[in-house]
Design brief:
Helix content is about 25%, strand content about 40%. By secondary structure, it is an alpha+beta fold. The radius of gyration is 28 Å and the shape is globular.
Length: about 450
């Protein structure tokens, strides 16, 4: 009997050792031939940690998972797609194509993998290449390149030639060695998602019950002087989006040029009299009138323009700049013809804007009825904060395209403060409606 028990224990130990060896090998393999040798930024998605989190969440909330409204999660478990699932998935950027993010996948069946990814990513245009297979979407912003058992995906916000990077990876095998400092840093990161650069970790994110938390250490801006503490607005529960940034401007020229490229008017007095606080509020809608020009033909077949007025609903939002000089900004802009007598601001993008200055505050708003300024202030070490309340934002329906992605959330709250002369600590939390269910599950549910 003792020998029998000993045999069972020995067998179990052997099985555990084998599983541990296989798991370690699977982990190590995910770092091999995964990232371009010249990668400057790496995004690591820890699929093992995510899998463990979802598994524990399932065990603790099986009734939620078995409900009918979770069918959308079940539907994500598709049949064989020819892609080998790694322990860690990497996205990365390369200087040769700086506007593009790449991802390397190992595959077991090229036909299945290409068919599956083409369908999921909308890839329909074959590009002629001599050394590898290449396919893109119609806009050329998403691409797939394949050779042997490797696929490279490329995602860009604007069309960019990535063929040289594809050739580097698929043909010349220019992969970063697992012993490289950047990948060694990535190995130490145990978060669900980590963004790393050669010098430091940029951001870490974890999906938890009822919330997503993320933290980041970033370099202090050379354009803004941030104090240890400052007087900032105290947010209300009425506006769907609220934001402030406090700090004195150190480099007027750079920031002024950037802002003038957007606003398209002289911002000199704004920077000259700016007094360290910019805030923003979005709440509800306002009506604006647009002139619509159409064309009609007379009896003599002469084409003549016809102007009609169309009323449209736009977001009611307001930017507020704290200033140190009463009425000087408004007076300057009126003299320059940028602001009309009825406070209309010319040449602003997207919507019609109105401006006014009262005491030490200059306001720009999409409504002639300017919103009230923040009623309360507080002394805080937080120099930047943005708070988004999801329910009012959904009701106002300003951005319908994102509604399905945020409908399971309740709020997004991001704060930043200076922790050292050259370091800013940024922390954020996204809260969800179900506080006992993992946030990732609630996102996938949609």
């Amino acid at each position: 009997m003792k020998k029998y028990k000993l045999g069972i224990i020995t067998t179990l130990l052997i099985v555990l050792v084998v599983l541990l060896v296989l798991y370690t090998s699977w982990q190590n393999k995910s770092y091999k031939d995964a990232v371009h040798t010249d990668a400057t930024t790496i995004i690591k998605i820890n699929l093992v940690a995510l899998g463990k989190t979802i598994a524990w969440d399932y065990l603790g909330n099986w009734k939620y998972y078995s409900s009918k409204d979770i069918d959308s999660i079940k539907s994500t478990h598709k049949k064989e797609n020819g892609i080998n699932i790694p322990a860690n998935l990497f996205l990365y950027t390369v200087p040769k194509a700086s506007n593009t993010v790449f991802c390397t996948l190992q595959i077991s069946d090229s036909t299945q993998a290409i068919s599956y990814l083409s369908k999921e990513l909308g890839l329909s245009q074959d590009i002629k290449e001599e050394k590898f297979y290449h396919r893109t979407n119609k806009k050329g912003t998403i691409s797939l390149a394949q050779l042997d058992q490797t696929i490279i995906l490329a995602f860009s916000y604007k069309k960019e030639d990535a063929s040289k990077v594809f050739e580097d990876l698929l043909v010349d095998k220019k992969y970063m060695m697992p012993t490289h400092d950047l990948l060694q840093k990535a190995k130490k990161e145990e978060h669900h998602l980590s963004i790393l650069e050669k010098k430091n970790s940029i951001l870490s994110l974890d999906s938890k019950d009822g919330k997503i938390e993320f933290t980041s250490k970033i370099k202090n801006s050379s354009y803004i002087h941030i104090k240890e503490t400052q007087e900032v607005p105290s947010f209300s529960k009425k506006s769907s989006i609220q934001m402030y940034i406090a700090g004195d401007i150190k480099d007027n020229v750079y920031l002024q040029n950037k802002l003038e490229n957007i606003l398209r008017w002289d911002t000199t007095p704004l920077f000259k009299n700016y007094n360290g606080l910019l805030s923003f509020q979005l709440k509800g809608h306002t009506l604006q009138k647009d002139s619509i020009i159409t064309y009609e033909y007379t009896d003599d077949f002469e084409k003549v323009p016809v102007v009609s007025i169309k009323e449209k609903k736009v977001p009611k939002m307001m930017f507020s700049f704290k200033t140190d000089s009463t009425n000087s900004i408004e007076s300057f802009l009126k003299n320059k013809g940028i602001i009309s007598e009825n406070r209309f601001v010319k040449q602003m993008p997207l919507y019609q804007y109105y401006a006014k200055q009262k005491a030490n505050e200059f306001k720009i708003s999409t409504s002639k009825d300017f919103m009230a300024s923040f009623q309360k202030t507080e002394i805080s070490t937080t120099f930047f904060r943005i708070l988004i309340l999801i329910d009012p934002l959904l009701k106002e329906n300003h951005f319908p395209i994102i509604n399905p992605y945020i409908s399971s959330m309740t709020s997004i709250d991001i704060k930043a403060k200076k922790v050292a002369a050259q370091t800013i600590d940024l922390k954020g939390i996204i809260t969800f409606k179900e506080n006992t269910i993992n946030a990732l599950t609630q996102i996938l549910k949609k």
